[in-house]
Design goal:
- By secondary structure, the protein is an alpha+beta fold.
- It folds into two domains: 260 residues, 3-Layer(aba) Sandwich (D-Maltodextrin-Binding Protein, domain 2), CATH 3.40.190.10; 138 residues, 3-Layer(aba) Sandwich (D-Maltodextrin-Binding Protein, domain 2).
- Helix content is 35%, strand content 17%.
- It has 18 helices and 18 strands.
- Helix 12 crosses helix 17 and helix 13 crosses helix 14.
- The N terminus is likely disordered.
């Protein structure tokens, strides 16, 4: 009944570079010119109540925005769509965004608008949680050492559970936060690596459910509602950022089985998104915003996370994340609790500055685009050059460099804290630390997609 629909494919020609004026790449910001005063000094930024909005909170609380002559209001948003719409229509000057949102908007999946990002907000920070009942069945298949499950826990151990649901004619439902969220792609990646088909999108046919051919049915649930939806039995598991995995542990309603750090080590997560028009109208303001965020990101990671307890106190306030201190601290301070009582050290569960986390790499953008193509959100095949052109139109290392070099000139930060700009290509070296052993080379997106047994590749199109 479920997961039995056959995928029909046809051959289509690869897309060209022609994306129209929407994707015209702006001239680089000057990194050498003296930075002028902000053209707009009163700003409103949006965020979702997740711990990875921390750079915004810290830039505000530590006075980094004011140091740049900026007077910022931070406003929590109801969901990711409301947040994106706010940036598009100008109610918000910028926002904490899912990394896929600027890319999807720019290529026209969902609401079309040219959104750019000059700043990556963090690495890692998500987890996948299943209900107690599902965990009880999974545990039967998981190897144990010293009475504890061996990690990382692959979706291979979930597959017998999903198969049983299918055989009984019951849907196996899972939650993620948004169709173009990292959580959606990470959950799909983990499931597919374990032989569980997470389904296709077919926007060219008007089907944006993402459930074509699915064995596990994924749907959207706002992050703060994940634990309650799991407890109600509406979903059997979910992928979400913190503190909503640890909340399930504290409430005793579910078990986080894997972190995204274990799915793809040091994966990019959120970005700071702005309307392209804003960056063109207010270039000095844009660079000054990035300067403040860079200082906040460094503060969050400096001295081996020594400032994290203070950050947790700030985030626990109702105007920010609004979860209990202990729930946020469970992951934010370098640990992560899986099954109740099984707390393990993961010092890089949240990374805000280390490993050049803040730099907007083109290869990061291309990975997200490959996942949109893999699952049908990009319905037609595209050339490798197309992926690069889209990445360059959205990710803006020129703005980042201008902010970084201003901080270096001021003596606020050191050259060594940033990539070597004169040599930087915008591509990370090929990345190997994925749970399924696949290698991602951002310069060859189509070759990357060819590796996967589950997912669209080459000229395949969902019919």
């Amino acid at each position: 009944m479920f997961g039995k629909t056959l995928l029909s494919v046809t051959r289509r020609r690869f897309g060209t570079l022609a994306l129209g004026s929407l994707l015209s790449v702006a001239l680089p910001f000057s990194a050498s010119a003296e930075l002028g005063e902000p053209e707009k000094d009163e700003l409103t930024f949006g965020f979702i109540k997740l711990t990875d909005m921390a750079p915004l909170a810290i830039a505000y609380e530590n006075g980094y925005f004011e140091d740049e002559g900026l007077y910022v209001s931070l406003e929590a948003q109801a969901n990711w769509k409301v947040l994106l719409d706010g940036v598009i229509d100008g109610q918000l000057d910028g926002a904490h965004m899912l990394a896929g949102q600027p890319l999807a908007a720019t290529i026209g999946f969902g609401t079309r608008a040219h959104i750019v990002t000059p700043f990556s907000m963090d690495l890692n920070g998500n987890g996948i949680t299943v209900s107690n009942a599902v965990w009880a069945e999974m545990k039967k298949h998981i190897p144990h050492e010293n009475g504890k499950p061996v990690h990382p826990i692959k979706a291979d151990y979930l597959k017998p559970v999903v198969d049983q649901y299918i055989n009984e004619g019951k849907p196996f439902n899972m939650g993620m936060v948004f169709p173009v969220s990292t959580h959606n792609y990470e959950l799909r990646y983990w499931l597919a690596a374990g032989g569980i088909h997470p389904g296709y999108y077919a926007p060219h046919k008007g089907d944006i459910s993402g459930q074509i051919n699915a064995e596990a049915l994924l749907s959207v649930t706002p992050p703060p509602q994940m634990p309650a939806t799991l407890e109600a039995g509406t979903i059997h598991g979910y992928c979400v950022g913190e503190p909503w995995n640890q909340q399930a542990v504290f409430k005793g309603i579910g078990v986080p089985v894997i972190t995204d750090y274990e799915i793809w080590k040091n994966n990019p997560e959120k970005v700071f998104g702005l309307n392209k028009e804003f960056t063109e109208k207010y270039p000095n303001t844009t660079v000054r915003v990035v300067k403040a965020l860079l200082r906040a990101a460094r503060w969050l990671d400096e001295n081996d996370n020594a400032n994290r307890p203070q950050a947790v106190e700030i985030l626990s306030r109702s105007e920010y994340v609004g979860a209990d201190y202990d729930v946020i601290a469970n992951s934010m301070t370098g640990t992560f609790e899986y099954e109740k009582g099984d707390k393990r050290d993961i010092p890089d569960f949240n990374v805000f500055f280390r490993y050049f986390a803040t730099y907007p790499y083109y290869s990061d953008a291309i990975w997200y685009l490959t996942q949109m193509r893999r699952w049908g959100q990009i319905a037609e095949p595209k050339s490798d050059d197309w992926y690069l052109e889209v990445a360059k139109s959205v990710y803006r290392p020129d703005i980042y460099q201008a902010a970084a070099e201003a901080l270096i000139d001021e003596g606020e930060m050191e050259t060594e804290e940033f990539p070597a700009f004169a040599e930087e290509s915008g591509f990370r070296p090929p990345q190997t630390e994925f749970i399924d052993g696949m290698v991602f080379d951002g310069s060859q997106p189509n070759a990357y997609l060819e590796q996967f047994p589950i997912g669209l590749k080459g000229s395949e199109v969902v019919e």
